[in-house]
Amino acid sequence: MIDLATPTYRKATFALALGSFLIFCNLYLFQPLIPLMADQFSVSVLKANGLLAASTSGLALTLLPWAILSEKVGRYPVMMISLALVPLAGLGILFSDSLSIMIFSRAMLGVALAGFAAVAVAYMAEEFTQSALMMAVGTYISANSLGGISGRIFGGLVSEQWNWQTAVIAMILFSLICALIVYSLLPKAVHFQKAENFSVKGATRNIAEHLHTPKILLAVMIGGLNFALFVNLYTVMGLRLIAPPYSLPLGWTSLIFLCYLSGTVSSRLSGHWRKQHTTTQGILIGTFISMSGVWIASFQDLAAIIIGLLLISSGAFFVHSLAYGWVSHQATRAKATATALYLVSYYLGGSLGGFLLIACWEIAAWSGVLIGSITLYGLMYWLGLRLRKHDSKHQTPTIATP
């Protein structure tokens, strides 16, 4: 097993974090470009949002197939195939000559990204010791946020300075280089045990079993709501800042994603939280922090908006880290399927939440967004209370290894 403070741990953790960084750079490259693409193709912002929704939906809908495949062939091959497909999907986006083809290509990119995202945590659960796993998952999710920040800011600044095609070309080259580095550093799986008597029926039974386990189902639902709010509040905030009275340029608006850094910190802190407190308490606290950020961001002052985004990010990533690790712990078998199920809800939430909050924005501007988001945060908090009731022993959960 890979333990803390060893050369293998450092190599493996860096490789997994780099893969995570690469995934999220690609996934969110187009988020700040939605107003730009709406203008270029002469469509509404709601329709242009399909560029983001397609990639997150494509990722969400293929997480389980990738996870099921990994139960048969192993985690390592799936991750390597996934990373190899990412630059190819980028070429499809680059040569798209219409919005519909570009949306389809972005969906195919989501499919490619899903392989790595679906099984990385399951790989860690099998190859890392318990103490190393807790820290490795926090580092992995921190790389999620850094990738999301970098992809969005890079897309916004490069597209404003040159064009979106330049941003896509650079991302293709970057993806290829990162894939080669991950391949050279990440140790091959040693402790993976091939699923015996594998069948689609058995995989379906595993999914049904997870969904009938309240501790897993509630965390899965919380993850979906959490991401529906988090990622799309940033989209709507970008629309708010390019409109009067702010009227900020696209490049400057994309800098709001630097507020993700608070999420990078909070996801790392989640590992330490699990050592001293319960996961369910942390989920409730993180939800409240994010909800407070929405209220603070309602003030017109730019400083209040930044503070609000920092709170939204820190709370969202804290909840995500805790809920993600919780699902992996509660699944006594088919861990990759369980974590993929969580991510399906997570990314479908991100995809569908955009249409809801953008509609709220178009109907009633920020007042509509505030009403819609507070309603969803209230539902999320209620689910957290139910999860805490099911956590009858109130013990700090750790992520079990096979």
What would you say this structure looks like, in words?
With 402 residues, this protein is mostly helical. It has one domain (7-188, 200-390): MFS general substrate transporter like domains (Growth Hormone, Chain: A). Helices cover 81% and strands 0% of the residues. It has helices at 7-27, 34-41, 45-48, 50-73, 75-94, 99-127, 130-161, 164-185, 200-211, 214-242, 250-253, 261-276, 279-296, 302-330, 335-390. The protein is globular. Mean pLDDT is 89; it is low at 396-402.
Assembly state: single chain
Name the helix and strand elements from N-terminus to C-terminus, one letter apiece: HHHHHHHHHHHHHHH
Q: From the alpha carbons, calculate the radius of gyration and give it in angstroms.
A: 20 Å
In the CATH hierarchy, the third-tier topology is known as Growth Hormone, Chain: A
Question: Terminal Cα separation, in Å?
Answer: 11 Å
Structural class: mainly alpha
Cα shape: globular
Number of domains in the coordinates?
A: 1
Please report the first level of CATH classification, the CATH class: Mainly Alpha
Largest sheet: none
CATH architecture descriptor name: Up-down Bundle
Helix content, binned percent: over 70%
Sequence stretches where pLDDT stays below 50 over 5 or more residues:
396-402
- Number of separate strands: 0
Count every helix, treating DSSP H or I runs of 4 or more residues as helices. 15
CATH H-level superfamily title: MFS general substrate transporter like domains
- Tell me the strand percentage band: under 5%
Residue-averaged pLDDT? 89
